[in-house]
Amino acid sequence: ESPAVRGVSRDSKQSKLTISAVPDRPGIAAALFGRLAEKSIMVDMIVQNVSDNGLTDISITVNSDMAQQAEQIMVESNESFGGATISRDDDIAKVSVVGVGMKSQAGVAARVFSALARSRINIMMISTSEISISVVVRQADSENSVRVLHKEFIG
Amino acid sequence: ESPAVRGVSRDSKQSKLTISAVPDRPGIAAALFGRLAEKSIMVDMIVQNVSDNGLTDISITVNSDMAQQAEQIMVESNESFGGATISRDDDIAKVSVVGVGMKSQAGVAARVFSALARSRINIMMISTSEISISVVVRQADSENSVRVLHKEFIG
Ligand SMILES: C[C@@H](O)[C@H](N)C(=O)O
Ligand SMILES: C[C@@H](O)[C@H](N)C(=O)O
Fold it and tell me: Regarding predicted confidence, which is higher, B43 or A101?
């Protein structure tokens, strides 16, 4: 059965923060997000892929207004993990295709990624759920991303 | 306002496949998912973090029954990208905390990760949306994960 894509949305007022090469052991994510929560940082995306050599990266997106503060917190957390690096990227936008039954369909994801690829839009991050496929793209690509995805799914 | 966590779910019948060190340029995700879609592979999680030195990793989770076929497709895709490696891990479970207003609350994520950390459960992958925080853990940790998260959020 075909999942129903209901809409395409974007948020260009986000910044991405990545803490790279953190130890992949229990307690690391808890420590980092505990500190972010303490300072009431609002986090949108959280993405962590599998580790390599016992190290992995954790990326978050936050409202641009909080980027400075979130970065500071990550720098301070870093001191307790040891060895990780922090990077911040303000030139991003989050674009989401939202619907129902979104998971289980490599076809929907293929259509999202192909639509973007045809416009030469690079996909910097991907995160999915049962109701959404979200990508991070450059801010300059965000309007075009919404346009081509709207055309692909809504008409 | 406090987001409402409605439930905790898990799926231990999943396998993780990662294609590592793919070029971070337009068309790569489209090519990979196009091939997966062609073979009607049902994909649950898709996780891609930011690239490093122009290369990044894309991980997916699929129903264990499709793992072999999905792996084969990734190996074939790899031939067109050049240079990437494929890894498969069947010893995983996806555990999700589902609710409303889940995003924007570093506090909810902190509670999820802390509950798992207190039980020494390692978080292998993280992917979030507005209605869910999903983690990948070892199969042996999946029952415990649900138990501690249920206790944390539902009582
Ligand atoms: C990297 C981080 O997620 C770690 N694996 C943890 O469990 O906290
Ligand atoms: C890595 C992959 O997502 C690539 N950036 C693409 O746009 O297809």
Answer: B43
